[in-house]
Amino acid sequence: MLSERQRMILNAIVDDYIRSAEPVGSRSISKRGDVTFSPATIRNEMADLEELGLLEQPHTSAGRIPSIKGYRYYVDHLVTLDGLGDQDVRKLRTFFAEKMNHWEGVIGHAATLLSQLTNYTSIVLGPEMFSTTLKHFQLIPINDVSAVAIIVANTGHVEHRTITIPDGISMDDMAKIVNLLNDKLTGIPFHRVKSVLHSEIAKELTRYIDHCEEILSLLEQTITEEQEPKVFLSGASNMLTQPEFKDIDKAKSILEMLEETQLLMQLFQSNPSGIQVRIGTENAMEAINQCSLITATYSYEGQSLGTIGILGPTRMEYGKVISLLDYLSKDIALLMSRWHK
Amino acid sequence: MLSERQRMILNAIVDDYIRSAEPVGSRSISKRGDVTFSPATIRNEMADLEELGLLEQPHTSAGRIPSIKGYRYYVDHLVTLDGLGDQDVRKLRTFFAEKMNHWEGVIGHAATLLSQLTNYTSIVLGPEMFSTTLKHFQLIPINDVSAVAIIVANTGHVEHRTITIPDGISMDDMAKIVNLLNDKLTGIPFHRVKSVLHSEIAKELTRYIDHCEEILSLLEQTITEEQEPKVFLSGASNMLTQPEFKDIDKAKSILEMLEETQLLMQLFQSNPSGIQVRIGTENAMEAINQCSLITATYSYEGQSLGTIGILGPTRMEYGKVISLLDYLSKDIALLMSRWHK
DNA sequence: CGTTAGCACTCCTTTTAAGCGAGTGCTAAT
DNA sequence: ATTAGCACTCGCTTAAAAGGAGTGCTAACG
């Protein structure tokens, strides 16, 4: 349990360090105004806080910087969430104003906005189709051997891919298949599509058409494989602004990680609804052990759909970022519900 | 006009500098084996080459490095295109083997491949729809007020966006409009869609439906706005590997530029078919004045469709990159023609 | 007893100086 | 025409010195 004074001092140190990126000394805290004790007193408290593991010293005779544990305490107990400035609010308001006609637009724009407002890197995961239902399925022939399969979800989400039509399947057959699929699958949640495809559709299909196994597995692939969400990244170069990454090698390993979509999705794996803060080594990923990741989920009809997140140095403006993510995730949810209500 | 010996020396200097990134001295050239003259002789020639503007000296008593003009001469007259190693060829072969079912897959994969094989940054522009024709147009209602418009090109390219249905337009009306559009627009090249929409469609539409101006402009937007090609980027972090960008600020300004899709498209603006090399300040963009950009167009039925490119330091392995781009652009063209023949 | 002034000490950072060495340009010899 | 020899330049590395921010401890103060 920390005393009130210790908490004030810890708060002051974290705030100062977030601004300056340099170890904070007792003198500078004493001069801040909000902590009215002398440097000597503050030094004593700082020694205690260091013993508790909340602060560390880069070397003897340097100021203190917050440890991971220190940031954690700050985030859990001290941070103030007033962080949205006038400009920020104005930009966020215009977020609604811009006409967006597909979700990629919304999500991509949100990513850009986040990185611009924070000067950190933003990572945004597009909506998962898990809880959405199939609205429409269609095959459009391109030529004799290939067709475009188009899948529309009830959220307006569209996926498509080109498939090769197996030999021995006529145009008529295709039309029948499409009708059958629309009959049976419309309104079915995507995560159940696969089983319905196997149980009901397979039987019907064998009646009409030969070679049905082939086309069935093709459709299965087409419909089920595309469920992985898309990742949007913005402001990766902002990482280079941070003094902690002036070392090219550190910067490089982070940027390399950011380029691997797979890894980013791993990073977002366990996202409980609401806002989550992962500080430094609390992140599983080696490359971002000196970073903090703050994520917020956006949801539609109570179901959490996707995630927006900010990656920055552990020395991050937690207050500002948290309130921004909170605000924007609700905005996105609202925007999506307006579309599809 | 350069003498044979001068060309050998220039070639040796460029080759050496590309490998080492350090100013090349007369002594080290003399020891290479392929230029059998003494350092003193080589020094004389180097002084001449500097006077011609092909070499420069970072400071007195340093070795020489190629100037922009020097690289230009190297690329135009000296470079050897044998650059594809065994591994490279093997990886390129597997490019065809992977199953790709939409063009984004091909293009994205090509970008990854290029950056991995070269350790530079690759930029790839997806196919322009300019010369392609409309294959199918469809509106799929999502709910009472919105629908998804889907546009399929004869190349299998699919675009979609959500539109809001204006008041006073019924489902029947929509169906009529879709039929009309498919009748009139199928087979029409995209660049002519707009005018056809205004001339023929507008007349017909006024007969059936009120409020037609509104929906017409909506459709026009939908169909014409989506023609801008998509940009794929890979290996941006490779820039940080190059010693010339160990300076964080230089690296940052380049990475920032790479994040702006608009700028990248500008960069590719004038792309005559075939391979183009732009060295250093030959690039219009300030941020990449210390970079070289090599681009190759890939085409389909004689019409150049899109561009693949490599961005690296001026000290780039021109031979290897040029042959690689040449090879891959033809591969992509072949792959696309196989789909749609 | 909590708080604060004073002071010696630590250690990082910046500055200055010296020496090294790769490379050049010129001259004279081959 | 080519090459060996040599004095000279200048960036880079290493070493030493100066500077300074900040601490921990002790003793004095209210």
Automatic annotation (TrEMBL), chains A, B:
Residues 105-322 form the Heat-inducible transcription repressor HrcA C-terminal domain. Keywords: Repressor, Stress response, Transcription, Transcription regulation. InterPro entries: GAF-like_dom_sf, HrcA, HrcA_C, WH-like_DNA-bd_sf, WH_DNA-bd_sf, WHTH_HrcA_DNA-bd, WHTH_transcript_rep_HrcA_IDD. The keyword Membrane does not apply. Residues 1-72 form the Winged helix-turn-helix transcription repressor HrcA DNA-binding domain. Belongs to the HrcA family. Negative regulator of class I heat shock genes (grpE-dnaK-dnaJ and groELS operons). Prevents heat-shock induction of these operons. This is Heat-inducible transcription repressor HrcA. It comes from Cohnella silvisoli. The lineage of its organism: Bacteria, Bacillati, Bacillota, Bacilli, Bacillales. The gene is hrcA.
